[in-house]
Amino acid sequence: MASRPSPEFRAEAVRVALTSGLSRKQVAADFGVGFSTLSRWIQQERKNPENPTAQSDLEREVAELRRENRQLREERDVPKKGNGVLRGEKQMRFAFVEEHRNEIPVNRLCEIMDVSPRGYRAWRSRPLSDSQRKDVVVLAHIREQFALSLGSYGRPRMTEELKELGIDVGHRRVGRLMRQNGISVKRSKRFKATTDSNHSFNIAPNLLDRDFSADHPNQKWAGDISYVWTQEGWLYLAVILDLHSRRVVGWAVSNRMKRDLAIRALKMATALRQPPEGCIHHTDRGSQYCSHDYQKILRQHGFEVSMSGKGNCYDNAAVETFFKTIKAELIWRRSWPTRRAAELAIFEYINGFYNPRRKHSALGWKSPLAFEAQAA
Question: Which of 119, 140, 287, 341 has CA atoms 20 to 30 A from the CA of 195?
Answer without folding.
Answer: 341
